[in-house]
Amino acid sequence: MAAAKSKSKLTEAITSLDRQCAELEGATQRSFFGLPPSGKQPENLSTLNQYYAAILAVADSADAAPTTQATVVGQELDEQAAVPRKQWIVLRETEIPALNKNLKKAGLPTIAAKRPLSEELGGASQGDDEP
Predict the structure, then answer these.
(1) Domain that holds residue 67
(2) pLDDT tens track for 56-89
(3) Total domain count for the chain?
(4) Which of 47, 52, 113, 119 lies at 20 to 30 Å from 84 by C-alpha?
(5) What is the three-state SS of the chain?
């Protein structure tokens, strides 16, 4: 009985973390310019990625410094990214360690949330993109 209850709690914790991560990740939008039909939604990592890609395309489209408008939009994006960044920190610093503790007790592999980015990307270098 205790093992079944423990397994149920572990399943519930994994499901909860999965749901929170899915909300944080979000989904890309087909047309993300302007407000979505249901009004302004909180930013998630997918939509922020789309916005950053769009502003990068604008900045890269000319052989000149970014316009003041592009700079302002970039600053606004950085401000909007603060909320999902804080959500990720809470997940990484609180939720995942708590789940890992229960995974260890169950003899299951843990989640390595603090692995350096370069390992996740297969050692991709960080630097300029010159050949």
Answers:
(1) 42-106
(2) 888 888 888 888 888 888 898 899 899 999 999 9
(3) 1
(4) 119
(5) CHHHHHHHHHHHHHHHHHHHHHHHHCCCCCCCCCCCCCCCCCCCHHHHHHHHHHHHHHHHCCCCCCCHHHHHHHHHHHHHHHHHHHHHHHHHHHHHHHHHHHHHHCCCCCCCCCCCHHHHCCCCCCCCCCC
